[in-house]
């Protein structure tokens, strides 16, 4: 376990996840993470990293992430994000277990969220498919160009599904839902979700489903129509870019102005760097191991470590600078997420590796 650090020194942070009951959820996340709800009802989501979660380790144990970010924005967020008037942690990271098809929904962009909802963020999100039952599908956009009026009429007549694109998915697939994308997660899919820190979801259609109390869940048709993309997507799945390194493979899953995600499949220790510019979040998908770092202010130098296993998420503050991820028994799979400088962190290094510009561009979804 991590040893004590000076009270104002930023260190890798762990959290108490929140289990969210959903009528479309199941029990897979409870079994996987040992985290359920007191009612024992189906769990659809586990919120792993969010600014309202409680820190469970080190000197800041018991504090909410939001409070620590407000007090130490430079140390936690890094140079690139700390100079805004009211620094906030910008991401929400989840696991989702869809045992039924989710509602057909759409998310606003930042401008709409700020103007109509008085919230700082819209919602761009990425899905990484961890497991998918044979034949599992998602909805991702419209099949053909439509007008707002045609979309509204299809909703009113219960024929919306006829206009939507259905895509089969498999374990390892990556999907980006940009603001305005009409989408739904289908039954039999377990995903890792990385998104802007927003819960703004407009339901366009909910399959005439009743909630647990026998009522009908609220729809947000006018707001959905305001923000919906009316043209079909030319790309439904990202083609990740894989790089072989000494410790294993680094697969770039997605990269846009709001986030980047890399899948690290490790058979040996690897050293990562925040360079003081950005935070990292490390989420374990498979295996176990340790995350180690050396506090630069410790005298004498003191190496501390966090044990990590399936479902663990660790926020590595920008001021940690360098840290090591070590697999146990030579097998560990994690997703590392952060906010990139696209030119410096994504485009330049991949071009140097000989990756074509068009392959790099499609990582944005």
Low-confidence stretches: 1-7
Oligomeric composition of the shown chains: single chain
Assess the beta-strand content as a share of residues.
35-45%
CATH architecture grouping of the largest domain: Sandwich
What Rg, in angstroms, do the CA atoms define? Answer: 21 Å
Descriptive notes:
The protein is an alpha+beta fold. The chain folds into 2 domains: 18-227, Jelly Rolls, CATH 2.60.120.10; 241-364, Jelly Rolls (Sandwich), CATH 2.60.120.10. It has helices spanning 28-33, 65-71, 73-77, 110-117, 148-156, 221-227, 342-352, 357-361, and strands at residues 18-26, 43-49, 91-98, 104-106, 125-132, 137-142, 164-168, 174-177, 183-185, 189-196, 202-205, 241-245, 248-255, 260-266, 270-273, 280-293, 304-309, 313-316, 322-338. The strands form 4 sheets. Strands 12, 13, 14, 15, 16, 17, 18 and 19 form an 8-stranded antiparallel sheet that branches. The protein has a 6-stranded antiparallel sheet with strand order 1-2-3-10-5-8. A 3-stranded antiparallel sheet has the order 7-6-9, with no helix packed on it. A hairpin with a 4-residue loop joins strand 13 (248-255) and strand 14 (260-266). The longest helix has 11 residues, at 342-352. It starts with 17 loop residues before the first strand and ends with a helix. Mean pLDDT is 92; it is low at 1-7.
């Amino acid at each position: 376990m991590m040893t004590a650090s000076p009270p104002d020194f930023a260190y890798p942070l762990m959290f108490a996840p929140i289990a969210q009951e959903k009528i479309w959820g199941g029990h897979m996340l409870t079994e996987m993470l040992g985290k359920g709800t007191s009612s024992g009802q189906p769990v659809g989501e586990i919120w792993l990293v969010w600014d309202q979660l409680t820190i469970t380790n080190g000197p800041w144990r018991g504090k909410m992430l939001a409070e620590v970010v407000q007090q130490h924005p430079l140390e936690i967020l890094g140079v690139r994000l700390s100079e805004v008037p009211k620094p906030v942690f910008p991401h929400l990271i989840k696991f989702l277990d869809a045992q039924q098809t989710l509602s057909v929904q759409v998310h606003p962009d930042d401008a709409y969220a700020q103007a109509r909802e008085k919230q700082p963020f819209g919602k761009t999100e990425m899905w990484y498919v961890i497991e998918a039952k044979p034949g599992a599908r998602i909805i991702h956009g419209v099949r053909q160009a439509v007008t707002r009026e045609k979309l509204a009429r299809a909703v009113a007549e219960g024929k919306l599904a006829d206009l939507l694109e259905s895509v089969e998915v498999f374990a390892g697939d990556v999907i980006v839902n940009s603001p305005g994308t009409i989408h739904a997660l289908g039954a039999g899919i377990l995903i890792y979700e990385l998104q802007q820190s927003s819960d703004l979801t407009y339901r366009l259609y909910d399959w005439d489903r009743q909630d647990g109390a026998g009522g009908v869940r609220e729809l947000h048709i006018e707001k959905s129509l305001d923000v919906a993309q009316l043209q079909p997507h030319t790309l439904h799945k990202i083609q990740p870019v894989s790089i072989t390194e000494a410790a294993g493979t680094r697969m770039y899953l997605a990269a846009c102005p709001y986030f980047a995600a890399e899948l690290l499949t490790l058979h040996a220790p690897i050293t990562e760097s925040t360079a003081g510019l950005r935070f990292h979040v490390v989420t374990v998908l498979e295996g176990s191991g340790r995350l180690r770092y050396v506090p630069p202010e410790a005298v004498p130098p003191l190496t501390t470590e966090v044990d990590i296993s399936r479902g663990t998420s660790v926020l590595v503050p920008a001021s940690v600078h360098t840290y090591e991820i070590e697999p146990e028994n030579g097998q560990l799979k994690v997703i590392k997420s952060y906010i990139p400088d696209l030119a410096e962190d994504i485009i330049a290094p991949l071009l140097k590796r000989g990756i074509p510009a068009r392959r790099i561009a499609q990582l944005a979804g």
